[in-house]
Amino acid sequence: MKLTTKFILINVFIVVTAIALTTCFTAVGINKEIHRQATVSQEGTLKTFWELLKAKGSDFHIANGKLIAGGYVVNGNYELPDKVKELFGGTATIFMGDTRVSTNVLKQDGSRAIDTKLVGPAYDAVIKEGKPYRGETTILDVPYFTAYDPIKNSKGEVIGVLYVGVKQSDYFSAYRNLQVNVAIMTAVIAAVFSLLTMLLVRKALFPVIGKVSGITEKIHANAGAIAATMDQHSGFSAQLSSSVVEISSTMEEFTSTASQIAQHSQSVVVRADKTLEETKVGAAEVENLSFKVNDISHNIQTNLAEIVELGKKSKEINKVMEIINNIANQTKLIAFNAALEAASAGESGKRFGVVAVEIRRLADSVVESTNEIEGKITEILDSVNRLVMSSEKSFQLIQEGQEYAAHTVSMLIESVDGVEETTDAARQISLSTQQQQIASGQVVLALKDIEQGVRHSSDSIRQTNSATEELAELSNQLRILVETFRVNRT
To answer: What is the pTM of this model?
Structure first.
């Protein structure tokens, strides 16, 4: 075989092989990326579908043969599936048990697939085991990327299924176009290089080897630089796509959180209104308590005055007892003198002497009794003094209680004003969070559009990067062949 023929065949083989290998690796990578993006997309769509359904009511039950969320009847109502399709595209279905009762899945005749059954692995996972299912499923003979979640009642029983999905053909259409483009590119590059090789060989090949070598070196260098640049762009595009997906997911969570905040804010408004009423009642009760404390203080003052008066009277009784003691002592002295007189009177004075002795004994008894009475009066005076001191202390505490009660009333009045302001602020927060929820939903939609644009950009960069790598490899092979020709010439 001639050297020219060998050279042509080798070039064609190298070109076709390089493009074929590059195409295979690219196809595998794109296929994996398509599956990953499909999974992420369906998770986000299903999450939004749950939020739309729970907004109608979170109490799921079956009544009169119909699936009901709160007071929202699902059967024959296509509002939510159509809303999901409007936001994200694809299909969405609500099952009662294993039967479709609300869906945007269409039959071949264009009618909705109502009353059709759930079958396959999704049925086993969701209906039988009560677990979510993610994977590829055939629906009405069409393959889909799908996501299923069980709908449970308050007892934890599976009474339905929530589904979202997208046709695999919608994701793989760009992939098939890429395959066709790569095949055409392979054929064109093979033909161009074959023709170029034939022309180079048929002409005076060796005189132009130097020029071809220089050009080849430049092509190889430029191809390497382009490949490096495209790698950077590819990495940046992948990072951007990942960031957009994460931001989109975060915004979806933020939207859900905003919805919950709006609900909680409304609860706060109701609670604030109730707190305002309770605070007003509390202020009135504390004010009544202040009036009662004032009454107690007045009673204590009256009792204290009476106790002081009782102490005074006890002291007066003590003085009277001193007078009685003095009289008793004088009586004893008189009785003693009488006894002396009776003794000096002889027989005639005996009876009088007996009377004098009894009078003296009576006087001694009176003195002894008055001493005991004085002791009791002293104890009474001590008790009165302690009672006065205790009453004065209680009066001081009551006065402090009055001051605290008055201060509390003032604070509660200020608290009523503060609670009123808080209630107004809660209403404003509730309104703001509702507006925030709407705005975040619009941001999520915008991020979805950006994500799709980045995905298309990433596909274009991958195609360009693949072609650039192939060009670099081909230029390297051409350089090797040129060196071979130089060796053969020598």
So the answer is: 0.39
Q: How many residues does the chain have?
A: 490
Between CA 212 and CA 95 the distance in angstroms is 69
Ranges in the chain annotated CATH 3.30.450.20? 1-203
Distances (CA, A) of 315 to 320, 377, 386: 9, 8, 15
pLDDT tens-digit map of 218-274 = 666 665 665 666 566 566 556 656 665 666 676 666 667 666 666 666 676 676 677
User: Running DSSP on this structure, what letter comes out for residue 126?
Assistant: I
In contact, 197 and 11? CB cutoff 8 Å:
yes
CATH homologous superfamily of 205-490: Methyl-accepting chemotaxis protein (1.10.287.950)
**1-203 fold:** Beta-Lactamase (3.30.450)
How do strand 99-103 and strand 133-139 relate by DSSP bridges? unpaired
383-392 exposure pattern, b = at least 16 Cβ within 10 A, e = fewer: ebeebeeebe
CA distances from 443 to 55, 156, 432 (A): 20, 35, 16
Are 361 and 277 spatial neighbours (Cβ–Cβ below 8 Å)?
A: no
